[in-house]
Specification:
The protein is an alpha/beta fold. It has 14 helices and 30 strands. α7 links the parallel β14 and β15. The relative contact order is 0.12.
Length: about 625
């Protein structure tokens, strides 16, 4: 029976074979860092840097701080498969022998990286201090992420590195400005093997996503770094993204073979992807039910002799706030996590052994319906180390254990990855410093007693303007979630980098239809039974009043809700804009998800840039909006 019990961290263990992921030819990638001095090494990455590629059919091993070459079987390079056809995969290292009856396989997993090459903000909760306060640690940063992956990989030659979607998209400027080519190049260096497509992989459309796989310069911007783009050396998987009858955008699965035992990896995204991306980005694609997709593939895989099946899916669950990274506590059945991944795990064929999930940006380590179910937070702050014991006789998973490992910054950075990041940091400076507008006073994220903020209002106004034309949505009001407003914009010049930093998620705008009664429900939902309050930030022209002392659910006066001074009719329909996070019911606003006649629009940061350019100049900077759209009554 699979178990989710975390095993002790392996980062301090003595490395054995540093195996390059994806079964690519030896020497394809070069890891480097500052060096250890002399002939000493910390792991195989040091050996490759100091001594170059090993001899044919060997790999470097760091033993007792000295570099040695050990023989290893190198499988043939991947010849690829046509998009949309089941991928039989590439055999991995290892051949059957008459020795042990089991084989150990390690899967290193992460999710929702979102192009986070630099150290992300925020910390990972690790425990509780003696005074009852939280204990947190800084985590993430791709140079440290690379070292942790290398150290974990060195503990088992049978290692596969996988990602559960949103590897790219909604990325910081450092990666997003270059259409996420820097992230793909970094993952090539790290040795990522497989990635399931997520919803943000489609932010720039399927054609652009195919370019991420195959390489080549951007059709409009070219190769902004000046040295070409080779494409991903890892493989995208898209089992439930159909381009036609019996064809998918990318292979449905990949099969790896370890010492004669096959393991299948099925990769896919959430079925609801079209509802949270711009429609033109997924035109011509059909997103199928996740459970039905996997269950239909099980017989096909078994005919190939596969008994061990891992599903890598961009869909996830919600743990209890304050849970540790290896817990499974939540509001679901039996006190476990809730969310879409729970029903999915229960619906999947029992042949599935492990589910690597994502999308919700949460950390959890569970066993649901006999299947190990994991998620590794987001932005490269964790790596899930999954250890499988497989029977050589039957191919079945005898045991499965998972451990979410924190990507701490107390390890040495990988030099080659650091060089890549530095290169793009230098290139991005010019664009980041470009002035796109002026403001007469600092626009702040801080809210007043009614939940209003000057920056939140400006962002909402920019979203309304971007979707107000009839052909772009015909929006009458826009709402912004305060959690999406990340940093103040200082008085004076506004640079592209500043504007991007305050709205860094790369969300697309969605315009949908709600009735006046639904808008009232939306406003009432701002106050939660738990006592929490989350006030939406409306665009100019939308006003209402609420009573702070009235019962939750009855605080808004319906007669006070107005658009451009005209009372909102509870039976009439209105066009409302929100970012795709809110539009899908995010932040606890399910009313948005009930909206009809959805139309995707511009990326939110592009809308803000256009608004600042249109409404400000050096001679006439944009004034801060008055905080008079929400009236708080006793």
């Amino acid at each position: 029976m699979p178990q989710a019990t975390p095993r002790s961290s392996l980062l301090g263990a003595r490395p054995s074979v540093f195996r390059l992921a994806g079964a690519f030819v030896t020497g394809m990638f070069l890891f480097a860092h500052g060096g250890c001095g002399g002939d000493e090494c910390q792991d195989a990455a040091d050996c490759r840097e100091d001594k170059g590629p090993p001899a044919s059919n060997t790999e470097w091993v760091c033993e007792d701080k000295r570099c040695e070459q050990h023989s290893v079987q190198v499988p043939p390079p991947d010849s690829g498969t046509d998009a949309g056809t089941p991928d039989a995969g590439t055999p991995d290292a290892g051949t059957p022998d008459s020795g042990p009856t089991t084989v150990s396989v390690q899967v290193l997993a992460f999710n929702d990286f979102h192009g986070q090459l630099e150290e992300p903000a925020g910390q990972i909760l690790t425990g509780v201090a003696p005074d009852g306060g939280p204990v947190r640690v800084n985590a993430g940063g791709v140079t440290y992420f690379a070292r942790h992956i290398a150290a974990l990989r060195a503990t088992n030659p049978n290692t596969v590195v996988v990602a559960a979607g949103d590897l790219i998209g909604a990325s910081p400027l450092l990666s997003g400005l270059f259409h996420d080519e820097p992230t793909v190049e970094a993952m090539n260096l790290i040795g990522l093997d497989l990635v399931a497509v997520g919803n943000h992989e489609f932010d720039e459309g399927s054609t652009e996503l195919l370019r991420m796989q195959s390489g080549g310069c951007h059709p409009v911007d070219g190769c902004l770094d000046g040295d070409g783009f080779p494409g991903a050396k890892f493989k995208f998987l898209a089992a439930n993204v159909a381009t036609g009858v019996d064809r998918t955008l990318f292979p449905r699965y990949d099969v790896r073979e370890f010492e004669g035992v096959k393991v299948a990896f099925i990769g896919m995204t959430l079925e609801d992807t079209p509802e949270i991306v711009t429609p033109t980005s997924v035109a011509g694609l059909t997103f199928k039910d996740e459970v039905q997709t996997v269950n239909a593939l099980v017989p096909e895989l078994r005919r190939q002799g596969v008994e061990a099946i891992i599903v890598v899916v961009h869909q996830g669950g919600i743990p209890t706030s304050g849970s540790l990274v290896n817990e499974c506590k939540g509001a679901g059945a039996d006190g476990l996590i809730s969310g879409a991944i729970v029903g999915m795990a229960k619906g999947l064929n029992d042949a599935v052994d492990v589910i690597v999930s994502g999308h919700t940006h949460q950390a959890y380590n569970c066993v649901i319906d006999g299947k190990v179910v994991t998620s590794a937070s987001s932005m490269g702050q964790l790596v899930t180390d999954i250890d499988l014991t497989l029977s050589k006789a039957t191919g079945d998973v005898v045991e499965a254990r998972a451990n979410n490992v924190i990507v701490t910054r107390d390890v040495q950075e990988v030099g080659a990855v650091k060089e890549l990041v530095t290169k793009y940091q230098e290139l991005v400076t010019l664009r980041a410093n470009q002035v796109i507008g002026w403001v007469s006073q600092t626009l702040r994220t801080q809210t007043d007693s009614a939940g209003q903020s000057t920056l939140g209002f400006v962002i909402a106004d920019s979203h309304l303007e971007a979707t107000k034309p009839a052909n772009l949505g015909g929006a009458q009001v826009a709402f912004m979630n305060p959690g999406g407003v990340r940093a103040d914009i200082a008085q004076g010049e506004v640079t592209y980098g500043e504007a991007f930093t305050t709205q860094p998620f790369g969300n697309s705008l969605v315009t949908l239809t709600l009735t006046g009664a639904q808008i009232e429900q939306l406003l009432e939902r701002q106050w939660r039974p738990s006592g929490a309050t989350l006030m939406l930030l409306p665009s100019a022209g939308f006003t209402y009043a609420f009573s702070a002392s009235a019962p939750i659910g009855s605080r808004v006066d319906p007669a006070s809700i107005r658009i451009n001074g005209v009372p909102v009719s509870l039976t009439a329909e209105y066009r409302v804009t929100a970012n795709n996070y809110l539009a899908s019911g995010g932040d606890g606003f399910p009313v948005f998800a009930e909206g009809t006649n959805r139309l995707g629009g511009a990326v939110d940061s592009d809308a803000l840039e256009a608004y600042l350019k249109a409404h400000s100049s050096m001679a006439s900077p944009l004034p801060a909006p008055a905080l008079n759209r929400i009236t708080m009554l006793p």
